[in-house]
Every structure is written in C-alpha cells, then in structure tokens.
Amino acid sequence: MESMILKAIWFIIHFIVDLIESLFYYGLEFRENFIYFIKNISIDSLSRSKKNELAYIEARINDLKKLPKHIAVILNINNKKDVDLSKLVNLVSWSMNSNVNFISFYDYKGILKNQLASSFHQLIKDKLTLNNDENLVWGPDYNLKASLNEGVEFPHRNGFIKHLVINIYSSYDSYSLFNKLLTDDELSSKDIKIENVNKKISKLYGNIPEPELALYIGKTTCTAGFLPWHIRLTEFIQISYKLKNLTLDKYIRVLYKYAKCEQRYGK
Amino acid sequence: MSWIRNEELKLSFFENLAIKIIKQGPIPKHIAFIMDGNRRWATNFNLNKSEGHEFGSEKLSKILKWCPKIGIKEVTVYAFSIENFKRSQDEVNAIMKLFIRKLLEKEQELHEKGIKVKVIGNLDMLPNDVQKVVADAMLSTKDNSKLNLNIAFAYTSREEITNSIKTIVEGVENNELISEDLYNVLIDECMYTNQSSPVDLLVRTSGEMRFSDFLLWQIPSTVFYFTETLWPDFTLWHLLAAVFYYQRNYTQAKALKEYFNQTRPAITNNPRVDIFLANLEEKRHAKLVEMSQLM
C-alpha cells in the first residue's frame, strides 16, 4: 500500500513538472513567434534579406568580448523526418555572419552525415548567396564517396575575409577513427605523450580546432558521444528545444551566454 | 572533519520521504561530480582557499552517506586535475596534505561502510608520501563492495586516453596483442576506470557548463546536470534535484546507451585480449604494492 502511494506521488510530481515545462515552453515559443510576427509587419520585407541579416548580427554581437571560432551543433534526431535542413542552412549563414570559422554538425546515428549530406550540400549551394569576401569550405569527408562533393565543394582561396569550414560528424568519427590511431605503425610506446597523440588526432580530423561552444538541440544536456578528444573546454549550451523553432534571436542569445562565461584553464 | 563519520546519518521526515519517492523511478547507478566552487565559496566568506577545500571535502563525506540511501552504487569525483598543478605551490601543497590526512584518518570507517576506494589518474605525478597513502588505501579497501568511490587525482581525460593507448601499443610491442585486436573499445578496457560501470549522471556545481577534461571518453550517454550552487553549499536536496533531472532525461540516456552498446560492443571470445587484460590488472596491482612500500 505504502509503495503504491509513493509511486503515485512520484508520477504526479513528474506529471506536474512536465506540465509546467510544456506551458513554459509553449509560452516562450508563443512570445517569440509573436515578436517575430510584429517585427515582420513593422519592418518591410527587406529585413530578412542577406544584407540586413548581416547588419543585424553585427550590431548585436558588437559588444561581446569573445566569440567562438568553432561551433559544434549537436542534433537530437531519430530519423530523416526530424531534420529541417533549411534551419541548419540558417545556422551556417548566421555563423558566417558572426565570424565563426568552423561549424560542425553532429548526430550520433549519422543520419545527417549518411543520409542527408548531399541534400544539405545542395541546399546550401542553392540558398546561400555568398558575398565576394566570404569563403565556404567543406571539411574532409571520411565516409562519403568523393562524387558526392563534386560541384559543391568550395575551393580554399586567399583574399577572403570570412572563412567557414563545415563538417558533419557521427559517432563513427568519435570512436572508430581511433582504430586508425591504434594501428598507426609510426607509434611506438616510448614517444606516446599527450602532445604526440594530439598531433596524430589533429591529422585524423583534418586539423579542426577544439570547439569553444557546443549548441545542443533538445532537452537533455549530453555530449551524445561528440568527439571526446576535442571537448575538454567546450561550453555546452542549449539553443532550442526543437529544431523547427530555431531562430536567429535564440542563436544570438547563446552567443551572449557564452561570452559571459569566463575561462579559467585550471588556475 | 572526516569523510565518513561514525554517527548514523540523521535525516528529517521530509528528506526521508523525498528519498522514498525518488526511489520509485530509475536511479543512476554511477554518478560523477565536478566539485567546483570551493575557492569562490571561501572568498565569499573571507576565508582562505585551503579552508574552502576543507569544507569541500567535508561535503564529500555527506555525499558518501546520501548516495547509498538513494541507491547509488558508484561515485566518481574530480578532486585534482593535472592542470591544477599550475596553481600556487602553497595551495597545491595544502591540497596534497588535506588529501593524505583524509585518507589516513578514515581508513577504518571506509571499511565499516564497505567503501572501495580507487584513485584514478597519473599517480606517478604525485609525491612519494601521497603515492604510498593512496596505494595503501586502494589495497586495503579493494574487497569492499557496498559503494565504489573513485577519486580523480592528478587526472585529465586526455592523459587517461593517452595512457590507455600507450598500454595497448606496449601490448603490441610485447607480442601480447596482434593488429586485428586493435579495436577502439580496447581503449575503454585499459582506462583507469576499466572496472567501473557507465557514468549515468554527471553533476557540476558553480554554474560551469563544460567538462574540463573529465571522463570525456566515458560519457556518451551520460546526463549532464549543472547547478549554480557552489560545492560547499550542495545539499541533499540538490542531489535529489540532480537525480530527478536524470529521471526526466532517462529515456534519451537509455536510447543512447543502447545505441553505443550495439555499435561499440565489448570484446568477447578473444583469448589474447583476455590474457592481455588480466596481465594488465596484475601489473597495476603489482605497481600499487610497490608504491605502498615507498618511504
């Protein structure tokens, strides 16, 4: 009897918190959408053009003391239908406009990487108009056939002010790439030190720097296995509960949250 | 001032009730703490840093009493990172002394409570006196089984991964392993934490949202809970809130765990690997025995 009552209380508490959470969530979403709606009718439609987006972002991030150079985006998706690629294209565009140099998309099952990469490439090509000083590069691809990149890859060239490298990862890259490290003939036990291992790993991962910021979508704070070697100092910040509700203002809010964090490096 | 007090844990009616209620849901078996905020806490109270650490270690003693009550079987704490050697010599010395004192003081009680202590990290970086005390504590509590306490000391995750890779490469060089055994799960098996169950919940105090080189390899399905509270202010209610948060994210964590169990299955039916790992445990044990004889 006692245990049944306890169980009931447990359910009720969880239910109430679920309820509060959803109310809170939908309340916030409603507010956000409402503001967005008002903005759209008060400012003319040009406000959403590329030039204005850039100006808007620049104005907003002007005061920030620090900005991430490498952003990881940790998606919480179970199948193709969960992915709204246009939202990810927006993220790429916002990152470009906020001077980010690397953006890495990750979902542990590799749905984006193995099933949607080519559509993602194509959509970026179609939707994203680059200014003359902007350069977009796809990171090295470990799994995909070379043909997939044809015609979509942007060459590395000098003379650009903004560089953005896009990578797509799955948990394969997090763990299985280490198989290559273990079977590396050049490794001898005498010279295995953190720095040497780091060099080898950097090489395996195309010399990407460690991300300073990981944006996760969904309610659970979790690495989901994202590149274990690279996340020792990465800030994990929730950007949106759902991918479909990802907005520019949420992105900027996360940048603000990140800039307030002070790094101490163990001291 | 001890990790394990002799007197029984006294809880209020509401605390007991809350524990009973929370136990109706899934309970994390293994919980890890990044005990951050001791120094900030000390500054707030105009105390010096070492007093902050003293109060912090006091809090750990409470945690070790609360956890078994809730049903948690394993606790891993980040006590001292390799990066922390960069702090002032005085502070580092004070932490070493505190660590030795706590381990020595309470060996008897660790036994009474059935706590198995394991210090994870690069023990070679520690002074001899610390090595000896650590080895003694680990050897004398190794058969206890009520609660596993892993203390990360002179630890970083990158060092641990590097050490594990080194162990494997040595295995190849000594002809214990051949190239077809070299599979990334072997890295898990050679970690300092190779005897541990997966970390279900990781709690970080004082508002930071990063892992600071702690258990990076071992946490793909771990729920990360962070709170603004400073470590010395952490109470049973904060712990219950963390467990509650874990329960709310349990489905996602379980799905991740199952996925990684499937895609990175443990190594089975490989006698070479079995022998290699058994030898590794023997070597590690022998090294501890050697350390315990240091003077």
UniProtKB/TrEMBL annotation, chain A:
Molecular functions (GO terms): ditrans,polycis-polyprenyl diphosphate synthase [(2E,6E)-farnesyl diphosphate specific] activity
Matches recorded under InterPro entries: Nus1/NgBR, UPP_synth-like_sf
Annotated signal peptide: none
Keywords, alphabetical: Endoplasmic reticulum, Magnesium, Membrane, Transferase, Transmembrane, Transmembrane helix
GO cellular component: dehydrodolichyl diphosphate synthase complex; endoplasmic reticulum membrane
The protein's required cofactors: Mg(2+)
Pathway assignment: Protein modification; protein glycosylation
Claim: Endoplasmic reticulum is one of the keywords in the record: yes
EC class (word): transferase
Gene3D superfamilies: Decaprenyl diphosphate synthase-like
TM segment ranges: 9-28
Principal place of residence: endoplasmic reticulum
Top-level taxon: Eukaryota
Enzymatic reactions: n isopentenyl diphosphate + (2E,6E)-farnesyl diphosphate = a di-trans,poly-cis-polyprenyl diphosphate + n diphosphate
Cell location: Endoplasmic reticulum membrane
Coiled-coil positions: none
Known EC number: 2.5.1.87
Family assignment from sequence similarity: Belongs to the UPP synthase family.
PANTHER family with a match to the protein in the record: DEHYDRODOLICHYL DIPHOSPHATE SYNTHASE COMPLEX SUBUNIT NUS1
Name used for this protein in its record: ditrans,polycis-polyprenyl diphosphate synthase [(2E,6E)-farnesyldiphosphate specific]
Organism per entry: Polypedilum vanderplanki
Lineage of the organism: Eukaryota, Metazoa, Ecdysozoa, Arthropoda, Hexapoda
From TrEMBL, chain B:
GO molecular-function terms, A-Z: ditrans,polycis-polyprenyl diphosphate synthase [(2E,6E)-farnesyl diphosphate specific] activity
Keyword Transferase: yes
One Pfam family cited in the UniProt record for this chain: Prenyltransf
Enzyme Commission (EC) number: 2.5.1.-
PROSITE patterns linked to this entry: UPP_SYNTHASE
GO cellular component terms, A-Z: dehydrodolichyl diphosphate synthase complex; endoplasmic reticulum
Reaction it catalyzes: n isopentenyl diphosphate + (2E,6E)-farnesyl diphosphate = a di-trans,poly-cis-polyprenyl diphosphate + n diphosphate
Keyword vocabulary terms for this entry: Magnesium, Transferase
InterPro entries: UPP_synth-like (IPR001441), UPP_synth-like_CS (IPR018520), UPP_synth-like_sf (IPR036424)
NCBIfam families: uppS
Family affiliation: Belongs to the UPP synthase family.
Protein name stated in the entry: Alkyl transferase
Source organism per UniProt: Polypedilum vanderplanki
